[in-house]
Amino acid sequence: MKTAEELTERQKKFAEFYFVLNNGTKAAIKAGYAESGAHVEASRAIKNPKVKAYIEELQKERRERIQSRLAGMSEKAAEMMFELATTADSESVRLTTIKDILNRAGYKAVEKLENKNEHSGKITFGFRDPSLKEE
To answer: Can you say whether residue 117 is alpha, beta or left, with left for phi > 0 and alpha for psi between -120 and 50 degrees?
Structure first.
């Protein structure tokens, strides 16, 4: 990490602790700053563009690791769902799995609507003024 090389050892430690703890005062204390002035040092460190950039690098690396893991997990989950949809003994399980696969792909089934045919014969368009008395 190029940014880490530009920091003092204490700034680097602060950034790494801040990344984990998400608390400036605690990170400053862990990085070796005096407890009495830790909140002031934390405020200064967080405002430092190089420290800020290093924290952002750490966050970016974590995001990339998580995305990579999730990509592998989602592929495995899709394989398992496909296998379940094609090989499950229960027809209900197969159909439920297929429905779930389609939902996740954006093909959600339309909800069934019940029509009781209860209509007064009067059709109104637009919005009804609630202050008007209904006839």
So the answer is: left
Residue 98 phi, psi dihedral angles, 5° rounding: -60, -45
Would you list the domain boundaries of the chain? 2-104
* Tokens read off for 76: 């495995």
d(CA 59, CA 66): 11
pTM: 0.55
CB 29 within 8 A of CB 37: no
The larger pLDDT score, comparing residue 112 to residue 61, is at 61
Distances (CA, A) of 73 to 4, 67, 79, 85, 99: 31, 10, 10, 18, 20
Q: Does domain 2-104 have CATH number 3.40.640.10?
A: no
